[in-house]
Design goal:
There is one protein chain. The chain is of the alpha/beta class and 385 residues long. The protein has a domain of 238 residues: FAD/NAD(P)-binding domain (3-Layer(bba) Sandwich), CATH 3.50.50.60. Helix content is 35%, strand content 24%. The chain has twelve helices and 19 strands. A seven-stranded mixed β-sheet has the order 6-5-14-15-16-13-17. The radius of gyration is 21 Å and the shape is globular. It holds the Pfam family FAD_binding_3. Keywords: Monooxygenase, Oxidoreductase. This is 2-polyprenyl-6-methoxyphenol hydroxylase-like FAD-dependent oxidoreductase. GO terms for molecular function: FAD binding; monooxygenase activity.
Length: 385
């Protein structure tokens, strides 16, 4: 197929990755971003081997590895008292890298020409058009051969084109996130596990540490006047360096979000005419496998490869849907199940977790983790060039 012109809605990680991938295969791309400036709101994330291969396919993998740092969240596990459940052995390498979300976003943004990004462009509607598809920006209508909707969890494209699909559902799971100005060795990273909450520590470059508190919440939208104080209350008496991390976090860096996904009603297709959903617009998922951004990166690479290898947009999008929907929905379901376990509140489950984890050596745990995640981590990207 001869490459045409595409509109990508959303200049987040998924949207920028789609723009890069499409441009690498010859497409003329315009990115529409509703905010006045293309930037990323968030704190930290980890990326697995599959996401790093997707970044390689986009041509930014080496740069990504420069701004990431090893993450030991799957190996260093503790109880709130500070007692180790498991700890990585000296010199043990792990396949995960931790990133400040803004750092990963910036290197993707730098790979897209500024002239290709239009900010302050809030898309209000989607339609079919003679050339393929169109988007509305108020009274203005833009047509393209292809529209990629990477417009997030509360996707306008999904609500407009899939009117019978339910919204992402809250499932009694809420997360606080922050970035502390503190210098920690990467080996200090890990997770602290309690029966209905966990605390994650991820050292980042430039003397920063990303942390997250995930917990059970009975009602969506509950907020505190002082979110930092609420995190301190929920982790009172927990081991070092948790108190120091909270002390070193400016209050305005403490973010609080409820977790919602489509595990209750996954979409029957990610494609509507010449519009393709990508990333959280298609498959919002909990953070418990570290795959939200990673799956968006995979989506972008697979979409561009499908378009490069098909005779027309319709055939390419059918291939994209067939390849991406089963994988992403399975991963979203697996993340949902894992997150449910973390916040279950079951004392019996917590005792079993403590017992089984302490019985394993660090290398055995790492091996079992890799085997358990092989279906996620072993993904290989198609070639774009």
């Amino acid at each position: 197929m001869t490459p045409g012109n595409a509109i990508v809605v959303g200049a987040g990680i998924g949207g920028l990755a789609a723009a890069i991938a499409l441009r690498r295969t010859g497409w003329d791309v315009t990115v529409l971003e509703r905010r006045a400036e293309a930037g990323e709101i968030g704190a930290g994330m980890s990326q697995g081997p599959n996401a790093l291969r997707a970044l390689d396919a986009l041509g930014v993998g080496d740069r990504a590895r420069e701004v990431g740092t090893p993450f030991y969240g799957t190996a260093n596990l503790r109880e709130p008292s500070g007692r180790d459940l498991n700890r990585a052995e000296s010199g043990q390498s792990l396949p995960l890298l931790g990133f400040h979300r803004a750092d990963l976003h910036r290197l993707l943004l730098d790979a897209v020409p500024a002239a290709a990004i239009r900010t302050g462009a809030a898309v209000t509607g989607y339609q079919t058009a003679p050339s393929g598809a169109a988007v509305s920006l108020g009274d203005e209508v833009l047509e393209a051969d292809l529209v990629v909707a990477a417009d997030g969890v509360h996707s306008t494209a999904r609500r407009t084109l899939w009117p019978d699909a339910p919204d992402p559902a809250f499932w009694h799971y809420t997360v606080w996130r922050g970035v502390a100005d503190l210098d920690l060795d990467p080996a200090a990273g890990g997770m602290t596990l309690a029966k209905d909450r966990y605390f994650l520590i991820m050292p980042l470059p430039e003397a920063r540490v990303y942390w997250a508190l995930g917990a059970r919440a009975e009602t969506a939208g509950e907020r505190s006047a002082d979110e930092a104080a609420e995190v301190r209350r929920r982790t009172a008496g927990w081991h070092d360096p948790i108190p120091a991390l909270l002390d070193a976090t400016p209050p305005d860096r403490v973010l609080h979000h409820d977790i919602a996904d489509l595990d209750h009603a996954p979409l029957p297709t990610y494609v509507h005419g010449s519009v393709a959903l990508l990333g959280d617009a298609a498959h919002p998922m909990s953070p418990d496998l570290g795959q939200g951004a990673g799956q968006a990166l995979e989506d972008a690479v697979v979409l561009a490869a499908a378009l490069a290898g098909a005779p027309d947009v319709s055939t390419a999008l059918a291939r994209y849907d067939a390849e991406r929907r089963p994988r992403t929905q399975w991963i979203a379901h697996a993340a949902h199940r894992k997150g449910t376990g973390y916040i279950s509140g079951s004392a019996a489950r917590q005792r079993m977790l403590v017992w089984s984890t302490r019985m394993l050596s660090a290398r055995t745990l790492a091996s079992l983790t890799a085997k358990g995640l092989a279906r996620v981590w072993d993904w290989e990207p198609p070639r774009l060039t």
